[in-house]
């Protein structure tokens, strides 16, 4: 009678911590996440009140219904089109130099909205938590989400909490979906790159990938590389104001800038050349990549964007980005070829030769975001 | 040098299946999900093209950008308010009598939108997949999502794919977030129940919970209980047309109808009484609950709603629901007391006594949805 055993075992797992919880002002308080916290009953309600509502508190957060609601007329003040995106975050480790999974889950989705020219407005937050996680750890992650959302000017408006048995997920996975509104003027698209357009980035590449690699392993290097995890909506606003004919922007996350630039070349049916010497990569990151046989062009970023800007607006775009804290090291790293082969990306190397920069085929680092 | 070992091992894990994949029309084709499929590069692109785009194909599915876009003016034709919701699905097993995790992931989010009076329109789809899953299994789940979305009249417009190492998640977790638009006339709220309002349900309760329990264990019972997993948007439209002053609707998922009715009593500061004899529960489900010591009022449903309807509109509401295939067995199971203690739910039992029906405190069945 396995089902009974399983059931009884689950019941005892779930009840033991409940029994040891204290009642504080009529709320169940436990220091460890149990399966009961995902059960849809009182334990879950109390966890939501205690952890999520406290941290995310805002007037749009609907605590009683399973949905958040907005007046369409309020949204229309920002523009004419709604943008919608989603990402799940499964990063390992969940805390790393420069951030944690909570900060990442806000930045990643804010950036996916902002790169389309949207003002990010509202986010959902759905958590899958492994039984046994310390409530204090969860609180730390949730507080980080709240702080990052505040800094990014977005509201977390609804959510979901699931708890799975020990061993059925690795600590915590977070999904955020987001909506924003795109200004009428903005018509960005990955297929819009034209000959002579310049390829810009807003700073040093590969920091996130290298920081996670460093945090995950035990190389005991004293390198202080931190993840670049940051919300880019303000920088993008600044960039689009300075260069209103910008063709396309994308944050260079999994797959690195190599994958983004390949997607541009592919969708715009053009060739692109980038200059190795112009591409900003920290010496520490280069060193990491040399030791591990990785290519920094494929390393993930969480606060770096690739922008395709018409040549005539490049100087203004660079100046505007460099005046913003998240664009201080912005660089012009290449351009769209006039006679390039459609879909091909090449790099002028520091030795003077040229090499093909293909899309990432396999996987450099799993669970990088 | 653990980090190197780890990295090399990951590389070989990821490369082995890639090496054994075939190239079909320039696409990497593999029969097993590898970490490379979550890497953001070519393997992921090809998986997305092969599995997701094929199944979800629709004009709003933005395959080139990380966001879907809609004209706000198009949304405004349906009503005045946008509704937004999210849920992650971690059900075990992923295939069960009456459905699978894909069908559930569509129905659950469609229902969370519809219960607020919203017309469900657009869904996101974010998957966390365990390395080693058969691509054919994934395709089956994705096809089920596509079929259910089509039946529910919603479009899947953007998504995300993550792959985690073997043992870091249990097969597959799916998050869907959704948006819909609420008609100007509808003002549903959990705090709106009033004395004498009736509590209606649309059919037999607890089927989903019992079906999952049966599918998970090995009791070898021949009971043909199937999950009630279904999209309820049409039934809700029918109900709201017949009973336009309906106070509140919610789907009774985790925590069962007991938790929903407690939330109503709590938010509306009223007492509610339900009648055991009027509450539709199949004999098979009752039998299950007796054997396992479970209370069917707490069993999860995935195609059942609780509606609070003014007494004057109850007959019309019941007739309208019973004329719809998903409401054939709709029942009036109780009412809001005039002099009940705020927040208390009681049941008139079949033996003639009364008992308190509290909110679920612990967990009856983990990973039920």
From TrEMBL, chains A, B:
Residues 77-182 form the PurM-like N-terminal domain. Residues 195-342 form the PurM-like C-terminal domain. It comes from the Bacteria. InterPro entries: HypE, PurM-like_C_dom, PurM-like_C_sf, PurM-like_N, PurM-like_N_sf. Belongs to the HypE family. PANTHER family: CARBAMOYL DEHYDRATASE HYPE, HYDROGENASE ISOENZYMES FORMATION PROTEIN HYPE. This is Hydrogenase expression/formation protein HypE. It comes from Undibacterium danionis. The lineage of its organism: Bacteria, Pseudomonadati, Pseudomonadota, Betaproteobacteria, Burkholderiales.
């Amino acid at each position: 009678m396995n089902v009974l055993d399983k059931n009884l075992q689950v019941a005892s797992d779930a009840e033991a911590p409940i029994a040891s919880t204290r009642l504080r002002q009529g709320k169940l308080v436990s220091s460890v996440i149990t399966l009961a916290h995902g059960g849809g009953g009182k334990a879950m309600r109390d966890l939501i009140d205690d952890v999520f509502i406290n941290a995310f508190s805002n007037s749009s957060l609907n605590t009683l219904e399973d949905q958040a609601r907005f007046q369409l007329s309020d949204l229309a003040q920002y523009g004419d089109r709604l943008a919608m995106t989603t990402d799940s975050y499964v990063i390992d480790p969940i805390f790393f130099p420069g951030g944690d999974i909570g900060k990442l889950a806000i930045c990643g989705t804010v950036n996916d909205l902002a790169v389309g020219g949207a003002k990010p407005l509202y986010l959902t937050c759905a958590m899958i938590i492994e039984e046994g996680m310390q409530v204090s750890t969860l609180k730390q992650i949730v507080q980080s989400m709240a702080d990052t959302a505040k800094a990014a000017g977005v509201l977390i408006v609804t959510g979901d909490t699931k708890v799975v048995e020990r061993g059925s997920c690795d600590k915590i996975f977070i999904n955020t979906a987001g909506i924003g509104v795109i200004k009428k003027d903005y018509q960005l698209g990955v297929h819009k790159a034209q000959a002579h357009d310049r390829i810009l980035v807003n700073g040093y590449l590969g920091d996130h990938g290298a920081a996670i690699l460093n945090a995950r392993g035990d190389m005991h290097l004293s390198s202080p590389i931190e993840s670049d995890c940051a919300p880019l909506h303000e920088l993008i606003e600044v960039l689009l104001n300075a260069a209103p004919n910008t063709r396309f922007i994308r944050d260079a996350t999994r797959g690195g800038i190599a994958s983004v630039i390949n997607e541009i070349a592919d969708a715009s049916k053009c060739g692109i050349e980038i200059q190795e010497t112009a591409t900003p990569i920290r010496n520490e990151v280069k060193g990491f990549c040399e030791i591990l046989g990785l290519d920094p062009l494929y390393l993930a970023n969480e606060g770096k964007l690739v922008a395709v800007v018409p040549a005539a607006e490049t100087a203004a775009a660079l100046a505007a980005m460099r005046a913003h804290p998240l664009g201080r090291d912005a660089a012009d790293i290449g351009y769209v070829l006039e006679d390039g082969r459609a879909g091909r990306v090449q790099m002028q190397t520091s030795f003077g030769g040229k090499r093909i920069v293909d899309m990432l085929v396999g996987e450099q680092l799993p669970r990088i975001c």
